[in-house]
Amino acid sequence: MAIFKKQKSKNDLSTDTMENGVMLITEVTPKDVVSEQFRTIRTNVEFSAVDKEYKTLIFTSSNVSEGKSTVAANTAVTWAQQGKKVLFIDADLRRPTLHATFGLPNNQGLTNVLTNKELDYHDVIKTTRVENLSVLTSGPVPPNPSELLNSDRMKNYIELLKGEYDLIIFDVPPMLQVTDTQIMAAYVDGVILVVRQGVAQQKAVTRSIELLEMVHANLLGYVMNDVASRNGYGYGYGYGYGYGYGETK
Ligand SMILES: Nc1ncnc2c1ncn2[C@@H]1O[C@H](COP(=O)(O)OP(=O)(O)OP(=O)(O)O)[C@@H](O)[C@H]1O
Ligand SMILES: [Mg+2]
């Protein structure tokens, strides 16, 4: 079921990147079976995090193009649809796509907030056509993403945002190419690993888990992307630190 075609929003005014956005199937067709799968992911993340505070979450993967942005954006939409006040932040400062997904300009975003003390971040966060869902685009791609993401300013900023939103979800780069995600995994409440079936190598997933364990990240579970099922190719969810191909719930 190749439902996720890259789409470029008609309103995309971005000038600094040619990356395309992802399909918001949960917004466009909330009754679709795939939207239901994203709601199941939402519920399973909630179960995984039961009794723990989970206000800040990242969706990552071992390597590129495993579906991080698709899963993060669609799951964020389902939380907003449930009534949670959600902020979705593009912290993939190397291959940002959130602005294209939501048809927003990207001349100001996270990187500006972190580097320009004069800027009121409330002016940079944008509402979307999805009720309860606000977004913060990446802003211009900086020369030093890891340093920015590891800065006290970033951590203080997140603390401020936690007071204003029920849930903050970050789109981030893959684990194995750069250290950005490992850095963030150390200070967010939970990490969900997206594993694309037939693409992700077991070794790469194992290495990603090691990197997460190294920083004592709270790995809540896995999203199995492109899982063959009765309905075609969809999304499944697995729990915990263990890993087994095809084991989805
Ligand atoms: N289950 C799926 N079926 C078909 N296509 C999919 C599926 N999941 C993701 N895709 C497509 O695969 C491509 C990569 O997805 P996405 O951009 O979400 O991945 P990513 O991990 O965020 O990539 P990057 O590493 O570049 O940030 C997109 O074109 C997306 O539409
Ligand atoms: Mg992405």
UniProtKB/TrEMBL annotation:
> Could you tell me what this protein is called?
Tyrosine-protein kinase CpsD
Write out the GO cellular component annotations.
plasma membrane
GO MF terms held by the record: ATP binding; identical protein binding; non-membrane spanning protein tyrosine kinase activity
Which keywords does this Swiss-Prot/TrEMBL entry list? ATP-binding, Capsule biogenesis/degradation, Exopolysaccharide synthesis, Kinase, Nucleotide-binding, Transferase, Tyrosine-protein kinase
Pfam families from the UniProt entry? AAA_31
This entry's Enzyme Commission designation comes to 2.7.10.2
Q: What task does this protein carry out?
A: Involved in the regulation of capsular polysaccharide biosynthesis. Autophosphorylation of CpsD attenuates its activity and reduces the level of encapsulation. May be part of a complex that directs the coordinated polymerization and export to the cell surface of the capsular polysaccharide.
Cross-referenced NCBIfam families? eps_fam
Q: Show the catalytic activity.
A: L-tyrosyl-[protein] + ATP = O-phospho-L-tyrosyl-[protein] + ADP + H(+)
Q: Please list the residue ranges annotated as the AAA domain.
A: 67-212
Q: In which pathway does it act?
A: Capsule biogenesis; capsule polysaccharide biosynthesis
UniProt organism field: Paucilactobacillus oligofermentans DSM 15707 = LMG 22743
